Write a sequence for this structure.
């Protein structure tokens, strides 16, 4: 199975960018900024598979590691984005051991899983045979984003092949009875994050999360090691909004929310 080490910086963390806009040029530009990984969002973004192939190429040319968040825990699309060259997949709404096992199986070749061979775009890129490379370099990252998933966390983290998980704060908040977003002033939300980090430490798994802007430092202090710190849509909104405000002589709102 894979090693998470390609994602992690010397300090043991990985900081990433998130793409919702289907464009290979912006994917390359994002990758050139120095993110440890750049994730293409095909679940909630505007990106179809036809755009994913070129965006992965752009991220590779830009020098970063391409991840794809797939729309769902479904083996066909997991295999297809890996064949396109993704180095890993983020799989939404993994709530049980069976669902975690299904995600790993979909992303791994036999004997570790059931992925079908046919890396049409990815197969010629490594310097070693692709299957050998894939077994070492492909990372399957289930999303832990519900109360149900937290209740099954220790069992999920024991599934062979899981070396990182990822938290979606919005869905976690909804299952806690809160509005979508980050709720660091709410004990239930904070306790949920603490439980996730503690479980990951026990299992030797890297916890990941969305945390744009200043929130990233807090999440790092809490123990998260894979942190998405920027989103293309939010960056466009913030950057262009700041330029417009400056031109109008208005104050600039530097607050960034997060879509997930």
């Amino acid at each position: 199975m894979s090693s998470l080490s390609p994602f992690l910086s010397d300090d043991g963390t990985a900081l990433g960018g998130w793409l919702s806009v289907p464009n290979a040029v912006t994917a390359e530009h994002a990758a050139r900024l120095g993110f440890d990984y750049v994730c293409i969002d095909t679940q909630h973004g505007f990106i179809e598979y036809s755009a994913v192939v070129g965006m992965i190429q752009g991220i590779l040319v830009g020098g970063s590691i391409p991840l794809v968040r797939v729309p769902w825990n479904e083996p066909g699309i997991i295999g297809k984005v890996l064949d396109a060259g993704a180095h890993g997949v983020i799989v939404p709404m993994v709530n049980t051991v069976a669902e975690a096992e299904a995600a790993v199986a979909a992303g791994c070749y036999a004997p570790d899983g059931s992925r079908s061979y046919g890396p049409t775009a990815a197969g010629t890129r490594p310097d070693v045979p692709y299957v050998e490379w894939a077994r070492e370099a492909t990372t399957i990252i289930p999303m832990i984003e519900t109360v149900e998933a937290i209740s099954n966390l220790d069992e999920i983290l024991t599934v062979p092949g899981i070396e990182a998980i990822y938290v979606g704060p919005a869905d976690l908040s909804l299952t806690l009875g809160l509005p979508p977003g980050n709720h660091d002033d709410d004990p239930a939300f904070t306790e949920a994050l603490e439980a996730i980090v503690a479980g990951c430490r026990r299992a030797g798994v890297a916890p990941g999360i969305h945390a744009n802007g200043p929130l990233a430092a807090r999440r790092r202090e809490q123990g998260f090691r894979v942190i998405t710190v920027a989103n293309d849509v939010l960056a466009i909104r913030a950057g262009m909004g700041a330029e417009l405000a400056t031109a109008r002589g208005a104050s600039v709102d530097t607050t960034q929310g997060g879509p997930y």
Notes: The chain has a mean pLDDT of 94. The first helix runs from residue 24 to 32. The longest strand covers residues 14-19. The chain has eleven helices and eight strands.
